[in-house]
From TrEMBL:
Residues 17-52 are annotated as: Disordered. It comes from Adineta steineri. Residues 48-102 form the BHLH domain. Residues 17-28 have a biased composition (Polar residues). It comes from the Eukaryota. GO terms for molecular function: protein dimerization activity. CDD domains: PAS. This is BHLH domain-containing protein. Residues 34-52 have a biased composition (Basic and acidic residues).
Length: 369
């Protein structure tokens, strides 16, 4: 084979040789595949899934932190001191222990305190310190006591057992007997009528104490639970008896004012519907107006119509900013200056109630405009 043939052989063989840069390497394949539309679409899905996961995790941490802060505010202050921050596991353990204690405390009761409305809770908190609740049957002229709370011991220094199955009238002072009896009889004839009487009632040492009894007629079943109008039941008298300490408070408070005859009205209302649930009789001096017209009515109903919008806007501002304000208005057609205060519940940091104090502008010496 001559040199020319050798050279042709080499040229023909080299045409089938694979050189390194003739085809792409593995790394080059990756780069090309990554830039392909399919790979781009898959990468976009992975990034979107990762972002969704991060968002869900961030929201979960925020919700967890919010609930833990709320739980911390509900736990009694003696468990949390300013000097040491309580850990979350310990906080959860304290909450579980408190809930277990509550469940054990009320496991035998059919009605829990949480079933009370806010207004009922306010009323009971005010009255519980110096009062007791009782219930009697309406058997012709006999009012047999079928239920009485243990707080009677604190008010009259007598046990509830000594009241049960006895006639209520047997504990009333002889001079007040017919007054209370006539009130109860008139209540029987008109079940919608409100009952309120001041009398003297026998204590544990056979002496008599001045009290006030408020009450109403209710329909209950044999378990002493209220029934609806369509259900079978029987009538009972439900009364609350309390010591008239409010009269003493009234006399003391009236000494604080230079002009006791000035018109003053103080009340508390709900921050939701502005309905009045409490009247401070120790400050109120409306001798010619019955306080019954105010209960469970919106405070706006007693404001002059031209002043209602401004008064309503002020109520909204006070509730939204948790502050207080002082504005003029016409209340029961009298020019008054009203001080509006909001009170916050420390357990949940929500507006608990609004307190309003109306005072005649003519008698004020502290007007601030």
């Amino acid at each position: 084979m001559n040199s020319s043939e050798v050279s042709q052989n080499i040229c023909s063989n080299t045409s089938n040789v694979i050189y390194p840069d003739q085809y792409p390497t593995t790394s080059m394949n990756r780069r090309k595949n990554k830039d392909s539309p399919i790979e781009k679409k898959q990468g976009g899905r992975k990034r979107a899934a990762s972002e969704r996961h991060k968002l869900i995790e961030r929201n979960r941490r925020l919700i967890w932190s919010k609930h833990m802060k709320e739980l911390s505010s509900l736990i009694k202050q003696q468990y949390i001191t300013k000097s040491s921050k309580i850990s979350q596991p310990n906080l959860l353990k304290i909450a579980v222990d408190l809930l277990n204690n509550i469940n054990l405390r009320y496991e035998n009761e059919s009605v829990l305190p949480s079933y009370l409305t806010k207004d009922e809770n306010h009323f009971l908190n005010i009255e519980v310190s110096n009062s007791f609740l009782f219930m009697t049957t309406m058997e012709s002229s006999i009012y047999r006591i079928i239920h009485v709370t243990d707080s009677i011991d604190r008010v009259l220094h007598i046990t509830s057992e000594k009241w049960l199955d006895h006639d209520l009238l047997s504990f009333i002072h002889p001079d007040d007997f017919f007054q209370v009896q006539n009130q109860l009889i008139s209540l029987t004839n008109d079940t919608t009528r409100k009952f309120s009487v001041k009398c003297r009632i026998k204590q544990g040492n056979d002496s008599y104490s001045s009290v006030t009894i408020n009450g109403m007629i209710k329909q209950v079943d044999r378990f002493l639970k209220p029934v609806s109008k369509n259900e079978q039941g029987y009538s009972v008298f439900v009364g609350i008896c309390y010591l008239p300490l409010i009269n003493e408070y009234s006399e003391k408070n009236m000494c604080l004012y230079k002009n006791p005859q000035s018109l003053i009205f103080s009340c508390r209302c709900s921050p939701n519907d502005w309905k009045i649930f409490l009247i401070d009789h120790s400050r109120t001096t409306f001798p010619l107006v019955s306080m019954d017209i105010f209960y469970n009515e919106s405070i706006l109903d007693f404001i002059y119509i031209d002043d209602q919008l401004y008064f309503y806007q002020t109520l909204l501002k006070v509730t939204s900013t948790s502050t207080h304000d002082l504005i003029p208005c016409r209340f029961l057609h009298s020019p008054m200056l009203v001080e509006i205060k909001s009170f916050i519940n420390p357990s949940n940091q929500q507006i608990d109630f609004i307190e309003l104090t109306f005072e005649s502008i003519n008698s004020l010496n502290k007007i601030r405009f």
